[in-house]
Design brief:
Blueprint: E1 3-5, H1 8-16, E2 23-25, E3 43-45, H2 53-66, E4 71-73, H3 75-81, E5 85-89, H4 99-109, E6 115-119, H5 124-137, H6 141-161, E7 169-175, E8 180-181, H7 186-192, E9 196-197, H8 211-217, E10 221-224, H9 231-242, H10 251-254, E11 258-261, H11 274-285, E12 299-301
Parallel strand pairs: 1-2, 1-5, 5-6, 7-9, 7-10, 10-11
Antiparallel strand pairs: 3-4, 7-8, 11-12
Helix pairs in contact: 5-6, 6-11
Length: 302
């Protein structure tokens, strides 16, 4: 089977199912596992993704006003690759190419007979469902069930170990300027890791956050996991927070409980490595109980 994956999480799902050799094309953001970068790239942003988080936010919003998708698809490359299966998503128009754009190019422009599988991960259970959906589409349902069961087993160990621990009050930041908390599956991961999630609702899109809301909640811990940013890039943006007069008033800042994570590689990708994302949160919140050795690569203390 010839598979095109148009988002990083589905690329990781395909590879975790043992089908890396069947991948013939990827999105511009697909970079894991190693070697994937050699595949032809089929998407590109309509905006300049460099600059500060505020500049990127403004460009994305402007791009959304002018087009149905903030990403483009290389239709000529897609036609040359002649995929049997194209994997995309309907969850977020900012995160990856829109389903409408994929459908327009594949069905209307190319008149391709390729099957389109659209993932829509809102809750954690949806991520498991999407893994199974991909496995079903490629004819290996048993491998999908096995991968899901393996993830669930790893995650349940943490849930069981945190059942009786003291639960810190945790605020997560998915964007820095303007402030945005994390929604969808992240509130579930916070609770599973033994914390009390303060902002964002499970299964709902990430909400914008006001500084007075953050001050009023005064979290015990602040976990920074910006969408699309690794630790180094997130650290570059921290001056925006640190220059705010409210920053030093936060309990988490005063007690050195601010943590920067690699949101791009872990938390922002609804795929197999959400198991590692949970381990990172557990390690941050309960260092006396957990040591998965993700510190330094998956997270750092500010």
């Amino acid at each position: 089977m010839r598979i095109v994956s148009l988002l990083p999480s589905s690329t990781e799902i395909v590879c975790a199912l043992g089908l890396e050799a069947d991948l013939v094309g990827r999105s511009h953001e697909c970079d894991y596992p190693a070697g994937i970068e050699a595949l032809p790239v089929l998407t590109a942003p309509r905006f300049d993704p460099t600059g500060s988080s505020l500049e990127v936010d403004m460009r994305v919003k402007e791009a959304l006003k002018e087009a149905t998708s903030v990403y483009t698809i290389d239709a000529e490359m897609l036609e040359r690759l002649a995929p049997d299966l194209v994997i995309t998503q309907t969850q977020c128009e900012v995160c990856a190419v829109s389903f409408a754009e994929v459908e327009r190019v594949v069905c209307d422009q190319l008149h391709s007979s390729a099957q389109i599988v659209a993932l829509e991960p809102n809750f954690l259970a949806d991520v498991f469902g999407d893994i199974q959906r991909v496995a079903d589409a490629v004819g290996i349902p048993e491998k999908g069930a096995s991968l899901v069961a393996e993830m669930q087993t790893r995650m349940q160990v943490i849930v069981d170990q945190t059942a009786q621990v003291a639960r810190p009050r945790v605020a997560t930041l998915e964007w820095i300027d303007p402030l945005m908390s994390a929604g969808n599956w992240i509130p579930e991961l916070v609770e599973m890791a033994g914390g009390t999630n303060l902002f964002g609702q499970a299964g709902m899109h990430s909400p914008w956050l006001q500084w007075d809301e953050l001050l009023a909640a005064d979290p015990d811990m602040l976990v920074i996991l910006p969408c699309g940013y690794d630790i180094a890039k997130a650290r570059e943006e921290l001056a925006v927070l640190e220059l705010r007069p409210e920053w030093l008033a936060l309990r988490a800042v005063q007690n050195d409980h601010v943590y920067v994570t690699d949101g791009n590689q872990y938390f922002n990708r609804p795929g197999p490595r959400l198991a590692e994302s949970l381990e990172i949160l557990a390690e941050i919140m309960h260092p006396d109980c957990f040591c998965f050795n993700h510190e330094g690569s998956g997270w750092e203390r500010l």
